[in-house]
Amino acid sequence: MSLIELSAAEQSRKLAAGEISSVELVQAYLDRIEKYDGSVGAFLRYDTGRAIAAAKEIDKRRAAGETLGPLAGIPVAVKDILAERGQRTSCASKMLEEFHAPYDATVIARLKATDAVLIGRTNMDEFAMGGSTENSAFQTTQNPWNLKCSPGGSSGGAAAAVAADFAPLSIGTDTGGSIRQPAGFCGIVGFKPTYGRVSRFGLVAFASSLDQVGPLARSVEDIALLYSVIAGHDPQDSTSLDKPIEFATPIDKPLEGLKIGVVAEHFAEGLDSEVESAVREAFATYESLGAKLVEVSLPHSKYAVATYYVIAPCEASSNLARYDGVHYGYRSDQAKLAAELAAERAALEEAGERGAAEDLDTPLVRMYRKSRSEAFGPEVKRRIMLGTYALSAGYYDAYYLKALQVRRLIRQDYDKAFAEVDVIAGPVTPTPPFELGSLVDDPLAMYLVDLYTVSANLTGIPALSLPCGASKSGLPIGLQLQAKPLAEETLLRAGHMYQSATDWHTRRPPL
Predict the structure, then answer these.
(1) One of 7, 21, 150, 154 is an active-site residue; which one?
(2) Which end of the chain is more exposed for a tag (fewer CB within 10 A), N or C?
(3) What does UniProt list as catalytic (predicted)?
(4) What does the mean pLDDT of the chain come to?
């Protein structure tokens, strides 16, 4: 078995025992990136020299007998939405193409403190808005299982990097399913913790009440390893929970008498038959392990997508207002703007339209408008306009306030269900991975891909995506587990319980 076929936990043990070096391990991944990422497009940037230098330093410190962190020498890929001091943080947008962060996000600082090797920055949908990684301003990422298909989004690059064995671990973000959906599409594990468990300090905001940072990996054991490093209270994030994260029981201890909630609404019209078959087979696996299936209802789940696509754009409209071409980020060409404005004013005055000439935008207003028009992509513009409209006078109560009220009803449904069961299980997505380009011109169809994932963000509960099968064409299918707030231990043990009896997480794409 090659080094890159080992789990991160196995790699860590071998590194600690001196059986392999960090330089060997990092070089193995860099060689694979060099060979295959030209086809996959998982990374926006990776720095071979920087990664090898970091690995050499860790090997040197290990040889000197220093105490190292739990991720010492392990490569980790990071979605290009978390600030890292001195490094470009673009959010896959022309708006931030040349932005170099002046500080480290808390998650980045914690990775560095545990001696992880940050191997590169992964591609994403611009400002995390999208479900296919086609909205990146710089490139499209392909699914390693079929290069004609989407890897999902918005953390498509982070998921593809793990699936293609470019890194054993990666960091993504999840606002409406952006970790779990690409994990499901790429045949790996993706985890969205309880809101507030992982600091958002240094995360470029999309929708602040929904955004979360989480890990992607091949196994639940590796997810638990990375989660234990990045989670924990952070006084720099006002929404950070001051709760201990230590697991009372190892995740490899099965859950006795596990009660799994099966949601009737998850198996309605629109669910692909191959997805339904794979998920129901996963239920049967759990039953064979001693779990009990209990039917539960989430009656307001049918409103989840509509609710999400009011709240998220409203928050995006507010958060993205800061990108004005003045403080930082892209600025439209000043000389060209001044020339255009002067030419328009002269033409109007010559035509006797002096009033119209005086009504033209001021140079500052025109600069704002042009900078934002030129730097934001179509999906970002669409969501800003939707959110601005929903927040405008006369519409706030009808849209945003109403969406907040429905959000509360959705949370009450979950609270009621978790009074009866330990976890809720169901599909991650309605279909297997779709072909690139097939939904890009149909925003509504693209939004419906989030059908089963947005509720976890609206309610703040933890959720886990696991590979549970494959379509007839060999594309991955994902199983989603959800648990009540702060029940990460239950969720990870339930996920490990499934993986101990199946091998879907060990399968690799034929690159």
Answers:
(1) 154
(2) N
(3) 79 (charge relay system), 154 (charge relay system), 178 (acyl-ester intermediate)
(4) 95
